[in-house]
Amino acid sequence: MKKTILLLLTVYCLLLTAGAQSWHPVGIPCGANVGFLEVYNGNLYAAGAGFCFTNPCCNSWDAVGKFNGSYWDTLGIFDRVTGLGDIEEYNGELYQAGGWVLSGNPWPNDFILNATGLAKWNGTKWQGVDTIKNPNGVSGVINLKYKGDLYLGGFLTSAGGINCKKIVRYNGSAWDNMLGGVDGSFFPEVRDIAVYNGDLYVAGQFDIAGAVPCNNIARWNGTQWDSVKSGVNGIIFSLFTDTVNNVLYAGGGFTSAGGIPVYYIAKWDGTKWDSVGTGVVGGIHAMTMLNGELYVGGYIGSASYSDTILAKWDGIKWTPIVGLNNGVFSLATYKGNIYAGGPFTHYGDANGATLTNGLACYGDSCPLNVGIQEFSVQSLKFKVYPNPAKNNITIETEENKNFVARITNPLGQKVAEKKFQKKLEVDVSAFGK
Q: What's the Cα-to-Cα distance from 224 to each of 17, 194, 209, 219, 424, rounded to whole Å?
């Protein structure tokens, strides 16, 4: 029986000017919308819609990938899954929430069809943990550790068989609804969670936490809820804790925090709210820091080439970072560079655009030759080496059967196809960028 391997080898040959911060692609073969980024054990983990390594432009698939700075490796391929949530390390394993199965194989394989849930990755395989209902899973599910427990937030209505409201706590075996969770009169949801000064801060769109009135943000000390002064007057998409300056940043679609005017971003010092310079124009969906500067992303401005959807704050002024053609929904600092994920497809103007497929690196030491590591198709494992390559690559399988290797470029166009058994060497010296 002949099997087909869909191998996407993406090799970029770019010139990097030392010390000059610029955008670079990071080898994502299919058009993706990377909504969550997490750094763990020296690797960058990414999850999102259309994030696929086996079939060009498989936009109906979601998946999780692991990046070590040179190579991508998949953590399983999910068949027709939507709504993957945030990634968080808990008890030595990676937990992933979300995954509403539409058709095909369940997510992960021991889940029932048409159900959302929580799964964990132990380094070699996925294992189902429990069932979570997140009916309006637009924002996916946010995960965070706090005082030895795992907290999950979103549009949640139940977890592990207990009713909850938008947020729930998990101790590794049992669930708790946190005194009733959070709720509101208009489309309530939890969009982000952060730990600051020993408390868990929960933000999104809601007006009550437990029995405590609040405005879109509340704090939890492990046993009870409290307000954060008068909160903010609009939805919060993102929270970020600055441990150096000991402040909590909140970004979103609001123009007032604690009663003072702000522009889509504010900072909380534990007792009062304050503005962050002149703020930015548009909603902030993600934040991170590098070299003492705060980077914020979202739908900022008009998202045109002359505008920006990413900006940085150095403590005195805001500086736009132009280039991407659409919004930024996730940000992470990894190996001295900024990684941005979102629905963007390329950077640069229309005459010199470079494909990025939903994830890009910004900095002065971004990787240039990004390859795809070993992955499996229907339990078949094979290796590709060296990857990235300049002249030749070797494809080697574990089985001595008839196979076909197809190599495509980032646009999904076939550049090579060869039949082989067990092992194949391919001359890639003539392949273009």
A: 52, 16, 9, 8, 61
pLDDT band at 33 (very low <50, low <70, confident <90, very high): confident
Concatenated DSSP letters for 352-364? S-EE-TTEEEEES
- Report the alpha-carbon distance of residue 266 to residue 282 in Å, rounded: 13
In angstroms, rounded to a whole number, what is the distance separating the alpha carbons of residues 8 and 185? Answer: 48
State phi, psi for 334 to the nearest 5 degrees: -145, 120
Provide the b/e sequence for 10-33 (b: ≥16 CB within 10 Å): bbbeeeeeeeeebbbbbbbbbbbb
Give CA–CA dist 120/75, Å, rounded: 11
Rounded to two decimals, the pTM is 0.80
The CA distance from 139 to 136, in Å, is: 8
Considering only CA atoms, which of 200, 201, 220 is closest in space to residue 210?
220
Burial class (CB in 10 A: 0-12, 13-18, 19+), 70: middle
400 C-beta neighbours (distance < 10 Å), count: 9
Query: Which residues, listed in sequence order, are joined to residue 299 by a DSSP beta bridge?
Result: 283
How does 44-65 read in b/e, with b if 16+ C-beta sit within 10 Å?
Answer: bbbbbbbbbbbbbebebbbbbb
Q: Within its chain, how far is the Cα of 129 from the centroid?
A: 21
Instruction: For residue range 287-313, list pLDDT tens digits in order.
Output: 999 999 999 999 765 444 445 689 999
Overall average pLDDT of the 109-125 stretch: 64
Cα–Cα distance for residue pair 237/330, rounded to 1 Å: 11
Query: Cα 142 vs. chain centroid, distance in angstroms?
Result: 10
What SS3 state is found at 139? helix
Could you give the CA distance from residue 231 to residue 213 in angstroms, rounded to a whole number?
10
The single-letter code of the amino acid at 194 is: A
> For residue 47, what are the β-bridge partners?
36, 64
Contact status, residue 251 vs residue 216, Cβ threshold 8 Å: no
